[in-house]
Amino acid sequence: MARINDNYLKLKAGYLFPEIGRRVREFTTANPDAKVIRLGIGDVTRPLAPAVLKAFHDAVDDLGTTDHFAGYGPEQGYDWLINAIIEKSYKPLGVSLRTSEMFISDGSKCDCANILDIFALDNVVAIGDPVYPVYNDTNVMIGRTGEADEKGYYQGVVYMPCTEGNDFVPELPEKKVDIIYLCSPNNPTGTVATKEQLKAWVDYANANGAIILFDAAYEAFITTPGIPHSIYEIEGAKTCAIEFRSFSKTAGFTGVRCGLVVVPEELMGTTETGEKYSLNKLWNRRTTTKFNGASYPVQKAAAAVYSDEGWKQTKEIIDYYMDNARIIREGLSQAGITCFGGVDSPYIWLKTPGGLSSWDFFDKLLNECHVVGTPGSGFGPSGEGYFRLSAFGHKENVIEAVERIKQKWGK
Ligand code: MLT
Fold first, then answer.
1. Are 274 and 243 within 8 A, CB to CB?
2. Closest CA relative to residue 220, chosen from 111, 317, 309
3. For residue 411, what pLDDT band results from cuts at 50, 70 and 90?
4. Backbone angles phi, psi at 181, to 5 degrees
């Protein structure tokens, strides 16, 4: 009989969001009349921007014509999309990138997982706590860790607590690490790292030969001037960082699927015998072997985000969600609940009222307010006692959810 990958058996629980889905299904089956408002998983609710939708339709029509039919595209993505992103999204930040440094994909979740292919298993990985569960679980799956302890920390991983005490930005580890996951704006805490904080990480990585995996999936939601949108705004980052971006939240592509990875030409790792080797070359080799490119209509739709009309319409949708974030943040604060995030990010990270555990608050919120959120402990042990609400709902639902919470917990 074929042997399985035993590493999967080390995983403590099912993936967080399906587990939440299961509990909500159980509740709605038992309470079919309850109007449940879902502010759990960060899934968008606004339709695609009209200019994006039109480009998507037009591209599908292309596929029905002999002249414009598109078969296999470049595995790395079409130049017209890559160049549009570089011009519109990186150049204004003062970041210049070559076309060969960007790889278009079918989403950032896969990229964050797939990138592990190009690194040796004996690298020491540093992960925030709480954290987007994909970083942790994919390292377990690939076999980089031992078993989890009773708290949920896996042997071999360096966990970096992100707490109120450090403004939810991890501190430099005492132990030397090789791969560092950073996410700003942060999922789940909704907080952001400043230029100075990121500079300290870039300096650490360059001094220690470490690589930063920088997840910027939520950069489009930054509203505070001066907060970096890209790790490459920090001097020295091109020799130590890979950046991930996503169209999922930025342009409503959670169902459409498109993301990107930037791997600078300057970025090097070392071979077993200590010679330098280009990570861009390795990622290109991996991409051309294991991926045939994001689909043509999806890339056309993504490119339309950077048209004048598409850009303006997309920005309006982001503003809509950020207004939801404000409503949640202000409403909950009025109810005496301590909130973080929600200013430069669509997530609000709140302290559970009355010192409830994260899952107890989840159950109470679901059962008594019919509102779904995400328990902070699902993102890691340091998330215990916290809870995440997403601002991606319909505005009327967000307003109603906040009212229900205020009625239950307001003073
Ligand atoms: C979340 O809710 O954390 C995200 O939607 C998950 C994801 O982007 O995969």
1. no
2. 317
3. low
4. -90, 125
Atom of ligand 1 nearest to the CA of 109: 9
Domains of the chain by residue range: 6-47+309-409, 52-307
Tell me the CA–centroid distance for residue 189 and ligand 1, in Å: 12
Answer yes or no: is pLDDT of 14 > 90.
Answer: no
Residue among 43, 110, 187 to mutate when testing ligand 1 (max atoms within 8 A of CB):
187
Residues with CB under 6 A from ligand 1: 41-43, 109, 187, 248
The best mutation among 17, 345, 386 to test binding of ligand 1, ranked by most ligand atoms within 8 Å of the C-beta, falls on 17
**Token pair 């009309």 in the structure block, residue:** 309
Mean pLDDT of the 54-67 span: 98
What CATH class is the domain 52-307?
alpha beta
Report the pLDDT value the prediction gives residue 12, as an integer from 0 to 100: 83
Kindly tell me the number of DSSP H helices and DSSP E strands found in the chain: 11, 15
Q: What are phi and psi of 231, to 5 degrees?
A: -65, -25
The pLDDT tens digits of the residues spanning 188-201 come to 999 999 999 999 99
The number of the ligand 1 atom at minimal distance from the alpha carbon of 390 is 2
Q: Which of 41, 244, 387 to mutate to test the pocket of ligand 1 (most atoms within 8 A of CB)?
A: 41
Q: pTM of the entire structure? A: 0.97
Q: Which atom of ligand 1 is nearest to the CA of 132?
A: 3
Q: Give the DSSP letter of residue 387.
A: E
Specify the 3-state DSSP secondary structure of 407. helix
Atom of ligand 1 nearest to the CA of 374: 2
- Tokens representing residue 206 in the block: 């360059």
Write the residue with the smallest CA distance to atom 4 of ligand 1. Answer: 42
Please determine, for residue 147, whether its predicted confidence score (pLDDT) is greater than 70. yes
The owner of tokens 């302290």 is 351
- Residues 282-299 have a mean pLDDT of 98
Summarised one tens digit per residue, pLDDT across range 91-100 is 999 999 999 9
Query: Torsion angle, CA of 380/383/385/391, rounded to 10 degrees?
Result: -120
Residue located nearest, by CA, to atom 9 of ligand 1: 109
For 380, which DSSP code? -
Separation of CA 130 and ligand 1 centre (Å): 14
Give me ligand 1 centre to Cα 3, in Å.
Answer: 31
Q: Compare 215 and 410 and report the one with higher pLDDT.
A: 215
Q: Please state which architecture CATH assigns to domain 6-47+309-409.
A: Alpha-Beta Complex (3.90)
Q: How far apart are CA 40 and CA 265, in angstroms?
A: 38
